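One record is given unchanged without comment:
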Amino acid sequence: MTKRKTADKSITPPRHIATDRLKSICVYCGSGNGSSPAYATAARTLGKAMAKSGVELVYGGGSLGLMGEVATSVLKNGGRVTGIIPTFLMNRERMLSSVQEMVMTEDMHQRKMEMFKRSDAFVALPGGIGTLEELVEQLTWSQLGRHQKPIIVANIEGFWTPFLSLLRHMGKESFIRPGLEITYHVVDRAQDILPTALDAMKATDEKREAEIAEHF
């Protein structure tokens, strides 16, 4: 894996919600804009909110579609962006060269692990099968107890409703069983993403503190 850093573009946002636990969010989304203008609007709204709140964006490194919209919005509003992209996608997804840090990986597996390690929470905006795969992977890892990072499904214009129905169907058919529940949060508006992530982290911290207290 190789790393390339652009010129230092450190920023001091006017208002911070970032905490010791929530410093960065990984955003999964499409390399296209989709059919509804609401998708791009949501991406820009989220990017601006992250920049103004001092939360770094970790994303797939491209300049196209919703990926480009959210990253460009963060940058335009004075925020920090880390892109992570496999070398074979650098031209196809038109790597966004203006980000503060671009990490180039050898393959998709390395890309996803690097995104996971650098992020405190995950958000799924509308996207295609790649976005779906990334979201499901984080849900699976959470289900198996590999992490407790918040996973936010941004159900803009009802985009994820069929997927959410499938998850409920899996539960109804006992493929998602007690003890293997999936923890995720659904929001319908981009402006609710950051508050939901913060609330989820707070709830996790309180649960962990309560579990520790039980042992003393």
